[in-house]
Amino acid sequence: MEIIIQSDPQSASQVGARIIAGLIKKKPDAVLGLATGSTPVLLYRELIRMHREEALDFGRVTVFNLDEYIGLSPEHSASYRHFMYENLFRHVNLNPERTFIPDGMAKDIPRFCLRYEAQIRQAGGMDLQVLGIGTDGHIGFNEPSSSLASRTRIKTLTAETLADNARFFDCPENQPRHVITMGVGTIMEASRVLLLAFGEKKAAAVAEAAEGPVTAMHPASVLQFHPAATFLLDEAAAAGLKKHQYYRWVYDHKPDWQQS
Ligand code: F6R
Fold first, then answer.
1. 2-255 CATH, one of 1.10.10.10, 3.30.470.20, 3.40.50.1360, 1.10.10.920
2. Centroid of ligand 1 to alpha carbon of 257 (angstroms)
3. Catalytic member of 117, 143, 164, 234
4. 103 is catalytic
């Protein structure tokens, strides 16, 4: 696990965008797994800037989003389809036919989930998965006690996650409790994982994920088993890490022969 600590969310997001841009340049038909929420907004902004100013080409890229609320139409302002359209898709040259987001309005959701897994497989699997982290340690919407081998399926949000995300809804009655999410097993199959976390609210969850025991009660901790997981943190989110100084030194002195 590589832990990169930057002074602020902006610089950490720039590091993340450079990693993604490097992948797309090397592999123009790369398959990206994407996240929503507040955390990746600056990352997407930087990718948009690179598209406009540096001709970063998304024309052959395929994207799969992690999750979606059940019962929200793609037009709903809190749906993740809407979020992705506003924060990334409409600003870059992604082919709409290569943007996949779980369908929260699907009539037969278990069947939809099987198809989503099949679509990821058919695309060749994710080259890189972007993740945020919940204050309760969730990745995607795999809440504590999720199977560490789980696949795309329906999950029920915890009270903590509902409270954390209430800001996206005009009133609590409109906030769905159920979601479709890629499973932990699905996420773990991505060739590379970039987890972003910013702010002191995430410090405890980040410390548990990186330095605590691997447990289904803190799903992000399973990334300790991933062969290429990178945590991109600002100082506040890194504040609870025991080996904080060590991680900083390692990154600041990274030899050229080590890949980015
Ligand atoms: C979103 C997702 C979630 C969020 C997490 C953090 O697609 O999968 O795991 O990444 O809830 O959300 P923010 O970034 O809003 O703090």
1. 3.40.50.1360
2. 33
3. 143
4. no
* Residue ID of nearest Cα to ligand 1 atom 1: 36
Q: Which atom of ligand 1 is nearest to the CA of 132?
A: 10
Q: Catalytic residue at 82?
A: no
Residues 6+ apart with CB under 8 A from 2: 229, 230, 231, 250, 251
Rounded CA-CA distance 195/193 in Å is 6
The domain spans of the chain are: 2-255
Over residues 158-185, the pLDDT tens digits come to: 999 999 999 999 888 889 999 999 999 9
Taking the centre of ligand 1 as the mean of its atom positions, its distance from the CA of residue 183, in whole angstroms, is: 14
Task: List the one residue out of 193, 205, 201 whose CA is nearest residue 241.
Answer: 205
pLDDT digits (tens, 9 = 90+) for 33-77: 999 999 999 999 999 999 999 999 999 999 999 999 999 999 999
Is there a contact between 200 and 236 (Cβ–Cβ < 8 Å)? yes
Residues contacting ligand 1 via CB (< 6 Å): 35-39, 66-67, 132-134, 138-141
